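Hi,

I'm pasting everything inline rather than attaching a file, because the server keeps stripping attachments. The sequence lines come first, and each chain or strand is labelled.
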Amino acid sequence: MTTTTATDPVTLGALLDRIRAGREFGANVYSTLDVLQVLYDRVLRITPATIDDPDRDRFLLSKGHAVAGYYALLAAKGFIPVEWLDDQGGPESRLGDHPDRLLVPGVEIGSGSLGHGLGLGVGTALGLRAQGRLDPRVYVLLGDAELDEGSNHEAIAYAGATGLAGLAGLTAIVVDNRSASHGWPGGAASRFTVNGWTAATVDGRDHEALHTALTGHDNHRPHVVVAVVAEEE
Amino acid sequence: MRDTFVTSATALLDDPRTTIVLADISAAAFAPAALRHPDRVLNVGIREQLMVGVAGGLALTGQRPIVHSYAPFLVERAYEQIKLDLDHQGVGAVLVSVGASYDRAAAGRTHLGSADVALIDTLRDWTVHVPGHRDEVPGLLRDVVCGQDSAYLRLSTQSNARAYPDAGDLRVLRDAGPGAPLLVAVGPLLDAALAAVEGLPVTVAYTHRPRPFDTAGLRALAGAEVILVEPYLAGTSARVVGAALANRPHRLLALGVGREDLRRYGSAEDHSRWHGLDAAGLRRSVGEFLAAVPAPA
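And the predicted assembly:
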């Protein structure tokens, strides 16, 4: 079922502080926080009770280094005990600097090496289609620099080409903080739309705009949401 | 073997979990199956990273992927996807290659795949089958597809004259008596190995399953001399044999495809000869190995 309770920013901040434990976070932590909140508060149909339900929505964090906000949200929503946030990355911790699906309930893929999530997401969407499960959606979160990896473009081209035949349930989310070394002239979304995807480019801080974009798929083609956040954030 | 594989894999589509993932190679052969099962015969185009990534995603939903291409494109090009999109996710797939070490020798270095088994061997808990005859393929494919774990089937145009479907564990085909040197031949090199030791007091055992290697059988059969004959990179199974026999004195000769890029075309038979894997070459190597007497301690 859809969770509609907004995560309290104070609670989330406290959970993040607990993970941070005095360390400095990279910009990636804050650039993905808003989209993660909107996903877990308002979009994803998944709860701690349904993490093995074949009809659940899937959220695949492809840019696996964006873990702090991810772990904080998973704790806030009850997927993992809050105590797990302490000693993140320590020798006894289940929470690495990149998430491992075998160690963390609610984590759909182990990621870290960039460029793996979208292919896994395409396969997940195709597997659901083969089983006749047309309800669950598959969301894959990437970064604009991650798009440098050629494997993404294999997935973008193929997903667009198959379109109606099965990948209508796929949504890619590109958090664009202009971190790709050579940029994406014309915008990241154009790499998708030229291959037949629908796209929405929105302010990555605007929760209403994110929600509209994340639920703005037409159910006929794969969909991409480019969430633009300020540089160096 | 490829035709047998296509027929067998198509039949396995009767199980709704079975899903075949291709990257153009053999797509025409699977076209009739794709017409009947458009959701479960997927050709992603010439995109090997995606092919394996899609297999990982399919397996995450509970499907059983069969992934197929040329050995170097399937295993070498997409190695990180094999490592991360399958193993690290805790899911399995069945990888089936054609081309072997030098089936298409005239195509040159780009289509030679001798490192495949060694690369798969960097991963844990994979089953590797190297059939030596087309009639070994259907049973081996069915067994691994019906399982959950990852498996690699290495098909080749090279073949022995007859099939030994039950040769996962070492199967003795020539017994030279207790203590005789043991030659283990893998897959399609069996016939050449048997011819090579004609008249020599050497026991010959065959397997089409180098992983998991039948170490119990090896320990039961091995004397002081062991000869490995593998149709892929020389020494691929040397570490397994070494570990299995670590607590007893032994000498090991590990024969297989050399590392050098020969930069020559020709036929598979030519490459077998150049790598010393034809009967004459094997006999030469085995003879030198057995003639060498270890220096006294």
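Chain A touches chain B at residues 54, 100-102, 108-110, 113, 115-116, 118-131, 150-151, 154-155, 157-158, 161, 165-166 (CB under 8 Å).

If the labels don't parse on your end, tell me and I'll reformat.
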